[in-house]
Write a structure and sequence with these properties.
Layout lengths: L17 H6 L8 H20 L4 H16 L7 H8 L2 H9 L42 E10 L10 E5 L20 E5 L5 E7 L4 E2 L5 H8 L5 E2 L2 E7 L6 E7 L18 E2 L2 E2 L8 E4 L2 E3 L3
Parallel strand pairs: 1-11, 1-12, 8-9
Antiparallel strand pairs: 1-4, 2-3, 2-7, 5-6, 7-8, 10-11
This protein binds 3-methylcatechol and fe (iii) ion (FE).
Fe (iii) ion (FE) binds next to strand 7.
């Protein structure tokens, strides 16, 4: 069936196979991949509604949740992503997208989910600078290492290390009116030897925000809101596949039950105590290994 004006097939509520009719209600200009994805989604959603005999009240509650997530989202807050994270969807897509063999000993740096709090255009810093403003008594940490070509082991010059993490109060700068704009975020570039170095904080465990639909859903499911202490990175260099990842502090009690299901063993690190440096009590050496295109 077509509606004549734009060639779009029409579905009717009275088709004997209503679901198939909705799936097939596409026109010739529809992108094939999009048609596959939307068709699959409609199939699963319809099956879900039938299997669970979802009532109109339940359906409207879900739509309301989606609308509220959208209304509270902006450049600093991504509630849709947060909802997807606590349902394991971003972690699953990360796993599907990853090309790494699960058990190989020597691997390129594993990816981990982006999460809702990355901001673009974090300040660019010089080698050895600190991303921390304030928190004089917190666990300041020297983090340093190299960005390497995984296949050849050669250092990559001018690679970008984009880093962000929470303050000791568990809040990203964008959630916290007490912190200066872009605090605890920064972009560094490796030198000709592939090295970077920066000061950050040893991270603390962190409850995801409970003031929106994601927090509300966790409460309704009687789930805890904790992410293990983590630091986010995007590592990029010309000619290489960018790596979105996180590192996790081994001492954290939530390493095995991350609310966002993001922890991978190869990303769990040990911070070492650092003596005689007024700028940092801890040290972490960490190399990132990228794969060329
Ligand atoms: C976070 O800080 C985060 O990193 C992820 C992945 C999900 C929710 C909050
Ligand atoms: Fe995070």
């Amino acid at each position: 069936k077509t509606n004549g004006t734009n060639g779009t097939a029409a579905a009717s509520r009275f088709d004997p196979n209503f679901t198939a009719a909705v799936i097939n209600a596409t026109g010739p200009k529809a992108n094939p991949r999009l048609k596959q994805l939307v068709g699959g989604l409609v199939q699963h959603l319809h099956d879900f509604l039938r299997e669970n005999e979802v009532t109109l009240d339940e359906y409207f509650a879900a739509i309301d949740m989606i609308n509220r997530a959208g209304q509270m989202s902006n450049a600093k807050r991504n509630e849709g992503q947060l909802l997807s994270d606590i349902l394991g969807m971003e972690s699953l897509c990360d796993e599907i997208t990853s090309t790494l063999a699960a058990e190989a000993a020597d691997q390129p740096t594993a990816t981990a989910i982006l999460g809702p709090f990355w901001r673009k255009d974090a300040p660019a810093y010089a080698m050895g600078d600190s991303i921390v403003k304030g928190f004089p008594d917190a666990d300041h940490t020297l983090m340093h290492g190299r960005v390497l070509d995984f296949d050849t082991g050669t250092p990559i010059a001018n690679a970008e290390v984009d880093i962000w993490h929470t303050a000791p109060n568990g809040l990203y700068e964008s959630q916290d009116p007490e912190q200066p704009d872009m605090n605890l975020r920064g972009r560094f570039h490796t030198g000709p030897d592939g090295r970077y170095s920066l000061y950050c904080l040893r991270p603390t465990k962190y409850p995801i925000p409970d003031d929106g639909p994601a927090g509300e859903l966790l409460g309704l499911l009687d789930r805890h809101p904790w992410r293990p202490a983590h630091i986010h990175f995007i590592i990029s260099a010309e000619g290489y596949k960018s790596v979105v990842t996180q590192i996790f502090d081994r001492r954290d009690e939530h390493i095995t039950d991350d609310v966002a299901f993001a922890v991978k063993e190869s990303l769990v690190v040990d911070f070492a105590p650092r003596q005689g440096d007024p700028k940092g009590k801890f040290e972490l050496e960490y190399d990132f290994k990228l794969v060329s295109f």
